[in-house]
Amino acid sequence: MRGLAEYVMLGRRQAIIIVLLCGFFPLLYFFSAAIVALVTLRKGRNEGLIVLLWSMLPAGTLWAMGDSSPMFLMLGTFALAAVLRKTESWQFAILAALAVGLVTQLSLIFQPEYLALVESLVSDGLQEQLNQSGQTEYTVEQIVDLLLSFYGAYHAIMVIVCLMIARWCQAALYNPGGFRQEFHNLRFDPRVMVVLLGLILVALLDIPPLDLWLPLLSIGPMIAGLAIAHYAVAKKGGGVIWLVMVYLTLLMMAPAIIMLGLADSVLDLRKRLDNAGKPGA
User: Fold this and answer.
1) d(C-alpha 185, C-alpha 178), whole Å
2) One digit per residue, pLDDT tens: the chain, 281 residues?
3) How far apart are the C-alpha atoms of 76 and 193, rounded to whole Å?
4) Residue 182 region, left (φ>0) first, then alpha (ψ -120 to 50), else beta?
5) Of 206, 216, 245, 270, which one has the greatest count of Cβ atoms within 10 A?
6) How far, in Å, CA of 241 to CA of 67, rounded?
7) Domain residue spans in the chain?
8) Is 256 within 8 Å of 180 (Cβ atoms)?
């Protein structure tokens, strides 16, 4: 990825070539979004906008074919990169990602064909289960609502991941170790986290429409939890196995990582870890 970043940074023409080449392929258009973000972070919003406009060609083509995700990804990642460049704050960038996820979630109202496709797939799957076991625990509507509740969260996470890739590339080229330090220090303002916690609690009470936004609202605390976990592992000299355990915990017990992020915002766990390592502490 570093070699690709070096090539992109040679000039606008090189960046446009790569976003066009990667943009048409489902497994590669994530790199197009990361390149748009890298150019924006390094060269500014105006230069990033030019590369973004070129990335709209493959993204628009895929949208016409029924896949709107590349369009949301390009626009969302550019917006996050512009926010991060201006504020130098991952908190604001992640909050911007939540806004992108919310807009994406609401866009489902204008995607009846996609909704019909999801409902059809779920209906076919339940019918097959009904034929095999003779019963099913959930209705089609319940499963469709559950799946669609992750739609905005998925796009929010993807724009954050693309932004992180871009920031890592920028650091690798111009500020070695910079991204690692930024991520380790990622911590939400307690007031922001209290608001997010309140919204999460309302969502847990199944109060619409927040009940459908629970995955999206949990992204901020989750990333903050991963950041403090990475910091703790590095502080204690833990190896890769400890990071593997962190991500296994995320997969199997995501609320634990979310609670860790919430706790760090209020208690400043980094400061406590630092003090614990001092003589006489």
Assistant:
1) 11
2) 788 889 999 999 999 999 999 988 878 899 999 999 999 999 999 999 999 999 999 999 998 888 889 999 999 999 999 999 999 999 999 999 999 999 999 998 888 888 888 888 888 888 787 777 666 677 778 888 888 889 999 999 999 999 999 999 999 999 999 999 999 999 999 999 999 999 999 999 988 888 889 999 999 999 999 999 999 999 888 889 999 999 999 999 999 999 999 999 989 888 888 877 565 44
3) 22
4) alpha
5) 216
6) 37
7) 1-104+155-184, 186-281
8) no
Tokens 């797939």 label which residue? 121
**C-alpha to C-alpha distance for 275 and 281, rounded to whole angstroms:** 6
Per-residue model confidence (pLDDT) at position 39: 97
